[in-house]
């Protein structure tokens, strides 16, 4: 575990001739992160996991404060998966002064989570830009579960010419379809029973996309609404690249949802290719 930025710099200097893979995380690591680390391990000869619970991307203070933190367990997990460095910078190192310049997500944050979490993606893009600049990896790995985040990071890297390959890694699911997330730990037994409804609703919309998009969405929303203890924030079909709503499937689309299950906000998505 490295917390000091100069020490990280020394380690990176030693790895100058290596392919460095960065896995940015906020800790509370689970098998979903494990898949990112495993992929980085397979692709690169130096793997760095960053662990930073970024205050600027939380729209609710209590969510930031409640976010699970367990450095020891995360370090042991990274070690078991063969990561070379777990870099856990303190907040004052990442933000030594109030930031004046930020990365703005533009219209790609007008829908889905961006619509309900003002400032969230500005915080995410800005911190990811900082992490990428500090580590300067050849590749950085992000989960497809955070579909809007991944699309925005890809676009930031393309528009601002970061010389880094962004690798998206498939969502890891429990047997009943629930996408792995650090937030699942907060679910009550009743919430855990109800939570797989998100994936069921996404699959229903996916299966209905051959017909009318609005009808498919209505069927998915009805399934979510029928589940006690679940409050839907959104269920939408958007273009997978620019994240604008679509009325038909002529290019890859993302079906995405966010719902409150027993007081815990969960998100999930599936990507669908157009029929040939
Ligand atoms: O997905 C996350 O864990 C965070 O949003 C990220 C990418 C590490 C930025 O803080």
Secondary-structure blueprint of this entry?
Blueprint lengths: L4 H10 L5 E6 L5 H13 L2 E6 L9 H6 L4 H10 L4 E3 L3 H4 L17 H5 L3 H16 L3 E5 L3 H13 L5 E5 L19 H6 L2 H12 L4 H13 L4 E10 L13 E9 L2 E9 L4
Parallel strand pairs: 1-2, 1-4, 2-3, 4-5
Antiparallel strand pairs: 6-7, 7-8
The structure holds pantoate.
Pantoate binds next to strand 1 and helix 7.
Name a few traits of the molecule.
five-stranded parallel beta sheet, single chain, three-stranded antiparallel beta sheet, binds pantoate, alpha/beta, 11 helices
Q: Explain this structure to me?
A:
The protein has 276 residues and is of the alpha/beta class. Helices cover 39% and strands 19% of the residues. It has a five-stranded parallel sheet, sandwiched between helices. It has a three-stranded antiparallel sheet with strand order 6-7-8. Strand 1, helix 2 and strand 2 form a beta-alpha-beta unit. Helix 7 packs across helix 8 and helix 10 packs antiparallel against helix 11. The chain is globular.
């Amino acid at each position: 575990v490295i917390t000091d930025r100069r020490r990280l710099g020394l380690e990176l200097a030693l790895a100058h001739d290596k392919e460095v893979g960065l896995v940015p995380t906020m800790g509370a690591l689970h098998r979903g992160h494990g898949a990112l680390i495993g992929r980085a391990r397979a692709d690169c000869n130096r793997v760095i996991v960053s662990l930073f619970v970024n205050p600027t991307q939380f729209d609710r203070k209590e969510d930031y404060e409640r976010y699970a933190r367990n450095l020891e367990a995360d370090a042991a997990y990274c070690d078991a998966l063969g990561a070379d460095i777990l870099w856990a910078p303190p907040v004052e190192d990442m933000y030594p002064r109030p930031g004046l310049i930020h990365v703005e997500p533009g219209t790609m944050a007008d829908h889905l989570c961006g619509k309900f979490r003002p400032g969230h993606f500005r915080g995410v893009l800005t911190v990811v830009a900082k992490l990428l600049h500090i580590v300067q990896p050849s590749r950085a790995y992000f989960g497809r579960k955070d579909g809007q985040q991944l699309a925005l990071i890809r676009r930031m890297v393309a528009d601002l010419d970061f010389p880094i390959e962004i690798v998206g890694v498939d969502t890891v699911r429990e047997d009943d379809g629930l996408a792995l997330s650090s937030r699942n730990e907060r679910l009550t037994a009743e919430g855990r029973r109800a939570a797989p409804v998100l994936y069921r609703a996404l699959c229903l919309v996916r299966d209905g996309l051959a017909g009318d998009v609005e009808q498919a969405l209505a069927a998915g929303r009805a399934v979510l609404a029928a589940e006690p203890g679940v409050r839907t924030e959104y269920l939408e079909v958007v273009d997978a690249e620019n994240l604008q709503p679509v009325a038909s499937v002529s290019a890859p689309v993302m079906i995405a949802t966010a719902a409150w299950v027993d007081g815990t906000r969960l998100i999930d998505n599936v990507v669908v290719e157009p029929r040939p």
